[in-house]
Amino acid sequence: MSLDAAAGSRDVGSIVRSFAWIVPAALLLLAAPFVIDPFQTLTLTYGLVAAIGALGFNLLLGYTGLLSFGHSAFFGGGAYTVAFLVKYLKIASMELFLAGSVLASAILSVLFGYVCVRYTRIFFGILTLSLSQVLWSLAFKFFWVTGGTDGLRVPTPKLLGAEPTGDKMDFLAHRYYYYVLAVFAVCALLMWVVVNSPFGKALQAIRDNETRAEFIGIRIRRYRLIAFVISGIFTGVAGALWAPLNGLASPDILVWTFSGEIVFMTVLGGFRTFVGPIVGAVAFTYLKTYAVGFTVYWQLLLGTVLVVLVLALPTGIMGAVGWLMSRWKKAS
Amino acid sequence: MDLLATRALAKSFGDNRAVDGIDFNVRQGEVLALVGANGAGKTTLVNLVSGLLRPDSGQIVFAGEDVTRQSSYERIKTGIARSFQIVNLFDQLSCADNVALSIFSREGKTTKLTSLASRDQGVWAEAHDVLRRFGFDRQMVVPAGTISHGERKLLDVAVAYALRPKLLFLDEPTSGVSTREKAPIMEIVSSIVRAGGITVVIIEHDMDIVFRYSERIVVMHQGSILADGTPDEIRRNDAVTTTLIGTLAAGERAHGGAGHAGS
User: What is the CATH number for A211?
Assistant: First the structure.
């Protein structure tokens, strides 16, 4: 999706044409559980969950120009919210899990954001990293509340009030998959509206030139904070969806290397486009799943991919696709 | 009537008194040129009035209101806008976006999260109109980072103009631009601001442009105001000639031409 502002004068026909790819993509996603095996569907579910988190992350990186190294805090915050709701309030409804995670990650991101948006660049990155590490150490040390390194178990939830039935794998690869797909579709649509709204344009203005943004009357800190909170909520929702899928909320999703994975998937897909983080999240999930299965040195493999990516495809998968398409259009 | 008045405005950077207790006033509707050698304090004065810098002491009154303690954000709302010596644009966004953002902001619409920016026909019609008047007919969808330096200087003015300010500061609108491009830029800017009845303060080193386009000239030197008068009065002012224009240009003046200052 282009950010060009021809958007201002684009007619409906051209908008429809630029979104024509959504129809086959949606059909493929809808048909997936009947075409691929449950393990593959499960991997795809993990990918879609990560995509929601990456979409949230990219509101900061791609649209506001802020590189957060602390998004594990919101992802983990969402997952632990679900675990706490199960353990302490005996709640089993996925809708309540989502509502709880929205509230918890909103509170968390207001607190973090209030401190972090005063800074930019490396200072912002380091601050987000430090704050997320505080949360990790809390989960790690307060083991009587959080389960420590063992984490907290999250059973399969009720979806829209319906009790989970049958085999767990079957439930996750079908009903839960469609549930995640629906939440993903809603999140992607919401985020698309946000980045294309006047507010989204103002964020891009701040990203490009904060002095000028200030001198057309935009209150940059306030806008950055709002972007930070929206970003945190999206990533928190992803964490909430992830918890039942994984069956466990554990401190390894709060640690800073997990924030690094969110950065990795966004850069892999391409942070300059709207779809980039989605493609990157799904691609990364598959890449990691197969790398882990293929070799014990999977980190080495992923590291190599990252180096090659930065050197050969700095604009990520979607940047390369865009470049190839423009070449193809010129040639034809 | 004074639109802007500063009283004993001062700002120091270490031992350097960049602006040294200045009483500077701008009258409603005039085009005023602020001139002086590099380091005279012109840009610091504009930074103080526009809110980029906080003064050490003194007062700034704009349209009858004390704005000394106001943030730059509040000053823009009261009608002070500016362009920059080093161009500040939203480089990845198109020229149309750059101007439309000023309009969205002016109308208080940048807080809207749930409607598409592209659907606001009124804003885009105005943005396109502003761009056409500044000569950007063919570059509306081009990213601002890809146009020429002269065009970027002009777009920077257009972005400030779209805020519909009462007072517009133009900080060296033709710096770094080839001599050939200077006059067309100034013709466009001058005709648009005059048609809009906007009060303008222009910082400029090129004395040809200063004498041609301004109605009043304020000369700054080492943080103070050295002279204040019409272009004719400034031309005849020997203090200005020696400190600002220099001996070479003074020679030119004797032959009926105006010199270049600031180098």
Answer: 1.10.3470
